[in-house]
Amino acid sequence: MWWPSPREDGLHSLIDRDERPNAWLKAVYSPGVALITQMEDGPAKGALTSSISSSGVIIELLRHLAPEPGERVLEFGTGTGYTTALLATRTGPGSVVSIEIDTVTADRARQNLDGLGLDVHVITGDGELGHPAGGPYDRIVATASVREIPQPWLDQLRPGGVLLAPLDSPFGCDLLVRLTGAGGGSARGEFVAKVDFMRFRGQREPRPYAELGWPENASVEPWQELRVEVGPHRQQIIDSALLRPAARSRAESSAP
């Protein structure tokens, strides 16, 4: 793995467990550091394409997701399989489906999880499509951020179930949104934390926030007063302080 901040030469420092075991352990258990496990242009350079989230962020993520034993969980972004392993330990054998878009990363995660004796279904594919064959799910969690909540996620969430995902925001960070399924492929909820995650590959292209349902005054905090409603043809972020919805439907935003 590599340290997330590049050196003066623009390259990322490799942390090899065999060569520097103490440094490796210190990095892995640093609660506020996300470590890089894959880069677009090869070792030590290029766009960061996969990472293991810091332990502090993972704890925050799972605290808000609050999975219970026996619940069906769908996870997007398997990565190393660390968060997946925690989920599977909590909910039990055969309860977690995890989707990873990168073939090499998915294969490595399967090996890691099998080595722990955990019964997890790891799928290589596009997480934005979800996995309808295993649904509906009690809990859905994304470990990469999106600009817009994909409709398949909402369709595969049971009424009363919880969906947790980092959502791109105008505040220079992602906001962790916690949504409760309302049936009919819709959900509503609120933001619970500031976070920073790698973007889903299919949602890296910037889009105007007005097209994504954000209020015109969303450049001004507090973000805690924003409420979120999502469903077929819409994503709507509402400023509860002003009681002013400010979203265009997806159909409207895509119209010429």
Task: Explain what this protein looks like in three dimensions.
The protein has 256 residues and is of the alpha/beta class. The chain has 2 domains: 1-52, no CATH class; 53-254, 3-Layer(aba) Sandwich (Rossmann fold), CATH 3.40.50.150. Helix content is 20%, strand content 30%. It is built from 6 helices and 12 strands. The protein has helices spanning 21-28, 55-65, 82-91, 103-115, 151-155, 250-254; strands spanning 35-39, 48-52, 73-76, 96-100, 120-124, 137-142, 157-168, 174-183, 186-195, 226-231, 234-239, 244-245. It has a 10-stranded mixed beta sheet with strand order 5-4-3-6-7-8-9-10-11-12. A two-stranded antiparallel ribbon has the order 1-2. Strand 6 (137-142), helix 5 and strand 7 form a beta-alpha-beta unit. The N and C termini lie far apart (45 Å).
Beta-strand segment tally: 12
> How is the largest sheet built, in terms of strand order?
5-4-3-6-7-8-9-10-11-12
Query: What's the CATH class of the largest domain, please?
Result: Alpha Beta
Secondary structure class reads alpha/beta
Put the structure in a nutshell.
By secondary structure, the chain is of the alpha/beta class.
What key phrases describe this protein's structure?
ten-stranded mixed beta sheet, 256 residues, Rossmann fold, two-stranded antiparallel sheet, alpha/beta, 20% helix, 6 helices, 12 strands
Walk me through the topology:
Elements: H1 21-28, E1 35-39, E2 48-52, H2 55-65, E3 73-76, H3 82-91, E4 96-100, H4 103-115, E5 120-124, E6 137-142, H5 151-155, E7 157-168, E8 174-183, E9 186-195, E10 226-231, E11 234-239, E12 244-245, H6 250-254
Parallel strand pairs: 3-4, 3-6, 4-5, 6-7
Antiparallel strand pairs: 1-2, 7-8, 8-9, 9-10, 10-11, 11-12
